[in-house]
Amino acid sequence: MKKSTDNPWQMIGLIGTLGMEVVLMTLGGGWLGRMLDTRWHTQPVLLITGVMLGLVLGIASAFYTIKALLRE
């Protein structure tokens, strides 16, 4: 059976997906942190925490996506 990594367009799509996972998780963490900062008047503590947490979760999500692809 032909491996799914042989198609260059599929690899370009994978790279785009991995980038979007990291970016969207980071932006989501920043957005949530800013909203909580506004509500609890803790600027910029929760914003920074949200961005860092989103970045870590985005990288972890990308890692598991690559791991699942390599398992196929």
Automatic annotation (TrEMBL):
Key words of the record: Membrane, Transmembrane, Transmembrane helix
Organism ancestry: Bacteria, Bacillati, Bacillota, Bacilli, Bacillales
Domain of life: Bacteria
Protein name: Uncharacterized protein
Pfam family, one: ATPase_gene1
Residue ranges crossing the lipid bilayer per the database entry: 12-33, 45-66
Record bears the keyword Transmembrane: yes
